[in-house]
Design brief:
913 residues; 23 helices; histidine kinase; Beta-Lactamase; 5 domains; transmembrane helix; transmembrane; two-component regulatory system; single chain; phosphoprotein; alpha+beta
């Protein structure tokens, strides 16, 4: 079989049959593998279960040995002869006893100080006597008065490894008076449990609570110093903690062999027993069975393979004939046929192939006709693409630009398609393609590369240059071209030139920005009234609106011989001081006489003498635009705009600069007028203050003498009427003077309230009661229960007095005055209603102005009095954060109302709660 480099691997029919035979054998191999794995698992489980049972049996026997030693110790401890602690009697008695108990090496009796009082070891003499007072097990027995099984020790007599079971000897009071030691040598324990093994390769070990080996059947002569070899062995540590463990693979710390085994704790004692075996010896039967099964499978596989080869060759012969026919048909030989006589489906397949060859010959003629038609359609499609005004570029999957329509060839300055064959990296470099903002474009961001990656995108704006250096702004749409299987075969992009459209949009944006800049300047200058703030805001906003790098503002003095700088933005501190003042002779001629905008080349020469030349050169400015500021026929200042780029102002730009200058000039004139108004108000307040002080003394004197003459000097009726008129006029004038003083104290910025907790209902009742005693008008008070408010009591009393006196002044005789107090939301509301003539609608907006008369002269109910009471009331209420208003209908009376907030008192009340 021939293979094409890079093409996927193809299998012949014969190889497929062989693979099918192998597939039939595959389940057999899988079953064998499963059987082997399961056999190994069961073998390991059986071995581990047997070792676990052995370990439990040994653990029970170890526990029984400890219990037997304890029983022997108790028997000796209760023996009257032992309780005498007489060495002469005890040595022989213990020797005789040791001969009857071969399970134990020796027996010793010790007094409370740990001195030996009796020794029962036939191989070792009693002298010299041992002292065990320093042994931990001895100290524990004497402290707990209970039997103790020691850890594995290195015995002193004889010197070998062993363990001791110690039982207390109690006196008549039950207190320990000595100890009976039953000594068990570890090598004797190991010999006792050898019979518990299932086979000779199985090893048994015993460790004490500290992890020291009591014995290890593989190393019966293990030195005492190596007894801690298993102290850190994890399975044994788990068994010492009371958890039985089975392991199927581990390393023996002594022999370094791979082992499997079981480890269990001893009942009622914190010792552990382990039963282990070498994995190699334990798994030997399993290995033998594995070799036998593998031999059988290999034989079956060889026989099946040979049989499959023979059968596959016989079955593939007709297939090769069909293959030859197919190749002939593919090469255009429509006359070739096959002759297969197998008597099965393969013969039917050969007849089907012959029929197919006949049909293919017929279809070939039809395809030739369709090809001619398709070529005609392709020529039409090419003509349509050639007529598209947008550039169309195509890239191959290997990353090369290879085709374009005529518009694309013109864009790339290529004569024909032969000049297009280039790598996309070269195309990126040649056309200098960048982002719309001028940033470099990487190869991965190139539209054709993105299309080849499978991305679809639209309206992507990029910049590119032609070979002549002309720059275009293009809108790019791209997508991959796929075949019927979905594989990407081309990358396509369509480029539309939007350079002209963008210029129009940028011009619209620039004009809109100018309009918005004018609006911002107007809003900023309308909101400000202070002269210094006006000049600062004007220069700052003009810098943004004009797109300048720096802006300076010089204002003309009343003396037009000089101009003073009042604001500057964008200069260094040293440069601002260089042009502090200008004189008209220093300005260009047209800036003053013709009121025209002047454009100055700050870096060049020329005859124009402008002191900003040195400043501009030092700061790096290339152009200066001088805008004269005129208002009401006179020059109020000069606005200078500095730019680091050379400027060439068009007619529209000059008009825009002129409009900005007019706005600034109007704002400066407004600020000056505001200063004049404020000065006039200051002079008016000084005059009112002086007039009030000058009037107070003579008015007081006049009223005092009028009262004295009325009370002390009898006179004619005419004199008394005259004195009464003088007294009333003096009192009225005195109230007016007092109102003037109050108005001066209530000047904005000077108001100071002495706030305190005020019961508005009680205050209102007090004033109503006071006025009711001196008037013929009935005053009706309707007051709801209202919270205590925080207010200036004296000022609020003045407000109530002014409103009540105003109602009495304009009410007809004997008509009632109605006063109400209530709550509306978070406000306390007070209203005073009279049945007077009412106030005309056109005069109502001015009622709270100073010295304003609610009724015109000669109108019904006109009182002929102009005061400050209502004006002062409105100022006091506003100072308290409230509001005051009136409701009036001519002929039906007037109601004056005011409200005060309750939130201050209520908030503290909730906080205190």
């Amino acid at each position: 079989m021939r293979t094409v480099p890079g093409a996927p691997l193809r299998l012949t029919f014969q190889r497929k049959l062989l693979l099918a035979s192998a597939a039939v054998l595959l389940p057999v191999m899988v079953l064998l593998s499963v059987d082997l794995v399961e056999d190994a698992r069961m073998t390991r489980k059986t071995l581990l279960d047997a070792q676990r049972l052995t370990a439990h049996a040994v653990a029970v026997q170890v526990t029984e040995s400890f219990e037997a030693a304890i029983d022997l110790g108790w028997a000796l401890a209760n023996d009257p002869l032992v309780r005498t602690l007489n060495p002469k009697l005890l040595d022989a008695h213990l020797l005789q006893l040791t001969g009857h108990h071969t399970r134990f090496s020796s027996v010793g009796v010790y007094d409370a100080q740990g001195r030996n009082r009796g020794w029962g070891d036939p191989e070792m003499p009693a002298e010299p006597r041992l002292w065990i007072g320093d042994r931990p097990y001895f100290q524990k027995v004497m402290a707990t008065n209970t039997p103790v099984v020691s850890e594995v020790l290195e015995l002193r007599r004889p010197v070998r490894a062993g363990l001791i079971v110690a039982v207390p000897i109690r006196d008549a009071r039950g207190q320990p008076m000595g100890v009976v030691d039953v000594v068990m040598e570890t090598h004797l324990l190991a010999q006792r449990y050898l019979s518990a093994r299932h086979h000779s390769q199985q090893e048994i070990l015993l460790v004490d609570p500290a992890g020291r080996l009591a014995f290890h059947t593989h190393s019966p002569t293990l030195p005492f110093e190596r007894g801690l070899a298993f102290a850190s062995f994890p399975p044994l540590r788990a068994a010492l903690e009371g958890r039985a463990m089975r392991i199927d693979q581990a390393t023996d710390p002594l022999t370094q062999e791979d082992i499997l085994g079981a480890f269990v704790p001893t009942p009622r004692y914190d010792w552990a027993v382990g039963v282990m075996a070498s994995r190699e010896s334990a798994m030997a039967p399993l290995t033998q069975r594995l070799y036998l099964k593998l031999g059988a499978v290999i034989g079956i596989a060889l026989f099946s393979g040979m049989l499959a080869v023979v059968l596959s060759r016989r079955q593939t012969r007709p297939v090769r004939q069909l293959q030859a026919l197919a190749h002939a048909l593919g090469q255009g030989d429509m006359a070739r046929r096959v002759h297969i006589q197998t008597g099965d489906e393969m013969e039917e397949l050969g007849e089907a192939f012959n029929q197919m060859a006949t049909h293919i010959a017929q279809r070939q003629r039809e395809v030739d006709a369709l090809r001619a038609e398709a070529e005609d359609h392709a020529r039409q499609l090419a003509a349509i693409i050639a007529s598209v005004p947008d550039a169309i570029l195509l890239a191959s999957p290997d990353g090369r630009l290879f085709d374009a329509n005529p518009a694309g060839l013109r864009l790339l300055s290529a004569e024909d398609r032969s000049h297009l064959d280039m790598h996309l990296a070269d195309h990126l470099q040649r056309s200098r393609i960048r982002h719309a903002d001028g940033r470099p474009l990487s190869l991965e961001e190139l539209p054709l590369v993105r299309a080849l990656r499978g991305e679809t995108f639209s309206d992507l704006e990029l910049r590119m240059c032609s070979l002549t250096g002309e720059e275009y702004l293009m809108s790019v749409n791209g997508a991959p071209v796929r075949d019927a299987t979905g594989r990407i075969i081309l990358g396509e992009v369509v480029l539309h030139d939007i350079t002209g459209r963008k210029k129009i949009e940028e011009e619209r944006t620039r004009l809109l920005a100018r309009e918005q800049a004018l609006a911002r300047i107007g809003q900023a200058l309308v909101r400000e009234v202070e002269f210094e703030r006006i000049t600062s805001v004007a220069s700052e906003q003009c810098r943004q609106a004009l797109g300048a790098d720096a802006v300076g503002l010089w204002l003309a003095h009343p003396d037009p011989s000089r101009f003073t700088r009042v604001a500057a933005h964008g200069f260094s501190s040293t440069s601002r001081e260089d042009v502090e003042e200008l004189t008209p002779c220093e300005l260009p001629p047209g800036a003053v006489q013709d009121e025209a905008i002047q454009l100055i080349d700050a870096q060049g020469g020329g005859d124009v003498c402008f002191p900003g030349h040195a400043l501009a050169k030092r700061e790096g400015f290339a152009s200066v635009v001088l805008i004269p500021l005129h208002s009401r026929g006179r020059m109020v200042g000069v606005l200078a705009s500095f730019s680091r780029e050379p400027l060439d102002l068009s007619t529209s730009e000059r008009e825009f600069h002129t409009t900005v200058g007019q706005l600034v000039a109007v704002a400066i004139e407004k600020a000056r007028l505001f200063q004049e108004v404020r000065e006039a108000l200051r002079l008016r307040e000084e005059f009112m203050s002086a007039a009030a002080h000058e009037l107070k003394t003579p008015v007081t004197t006049l009223q005092t003498w009028a009262d004295i003459l009325t009370w002390k000097e009898p006179g004619s009726e005419r004199q008394r009427k005259g004195l009464a008129a003088i007294s009333r006029g003096a009192r009225r004038l005195g109230r007016l003077v007092e109102h003037l003083f109050t108005a001066l104290r209530m000047t904005p910025g000077l108001t100071k309230l002495e706030r305190d907790r005020v019961d508005l209902r009680a205050l209102l009742a007090e004033h109503v009661a006071s006025l009711s005693r001196s008037t013929e008008h009935p005053i009706h008070l309707v007051a709801e229960e209202t919270p205590i408010i925080e207010a200036d009591r004296q000022r609020m009393g003045e407000v109530l007095a002014h409103l009540l006196e105003n109602a009495l002044r304009y009410s007809p005789p004997a008509r009632p005055i109605e006063v109400r107090l209530g709550c509306a939301g978070n406000e306390a509301v007070v209203s005073v209603h009279d049945h007077g003539p009412g106030i005309p609608p056109e005069r109502q907006p001015h009622v709270f102005e100073p010295l304003y008369e609610p009724l015109p002269s000669g109108a019904p109910g006109y009182a002929g009095m102009a005061g400050l009471g209502l004006h002062l009331s409105s100022r006091i209420i506003e100072a308290h954060g409230g509001r005051i208003w009136l409701e009036s209908t001519p002929g039906e009376g007037t109601t004056f109302c005011f409200s005060l907030p309750l939130h201050g008192v209520e908030g503290r009340r909730h906080a205190n709660a």
